[in-house]
Amino acid sequence: MLQAVPFPIRVECPPGACVCDRDSLLADPQADIRVLRLTREEEKKLIERIESIATYDDLKRIGERMRELLGIGLNIVPSARGVRTVRGFTIQLEERPGLCRKTRQAIPAAVRKCLERHPDIAYAILDAHDLLGSP
Question: What is the value of pTM for the model shown?
Answer without folding.
Answer: 0.84
